[in-house]
Amino acid sequence: MKILVIHGPNLNLLGTREPEVYGTTTLDDITTSLTHLAAELECVISVIQSNSEGTLVDAIQASRENFQGILINPAAYTHTSVAIRDALSAVALPTVEVHLSNIHKREEFRRHSFIAPVAVGQISGFGSDSYLLGLRALVTFLKDQTTA
Fold it and tell me: What gap in Å lies between CA 83 and CA 90, rounded to an integer?
């Protein structure tokens, strides 16, 4: 089982960017934790981070042939990107949306997700554990689909 992990804009600054909101864990720390968990769950992850919406759309479109699911933190594009939403809908891979902070407890504009309607679920507010919970949920979802 192969999962594409997508990190959106500004997540490359984790660890130093607004630590009171996002914590001090770096993106490399998250990737390391996900890699260890993926091995435990007997799946393989491929990770991309980009600040560019087009690059993220291209990665999503290319995922159709090589991956069974997508774990995505679209970051600010959550609230603005119809293009990412449409790409996820077009490839029709099971997708779990994750966020470090609880987007529903933040500014009003952050409470709307263009991604949520095309995702199998959303996990937010657990810091870097949101990614781990998301990967577990996605792998369980995919295994349940296989056995159904």
Answer: 10
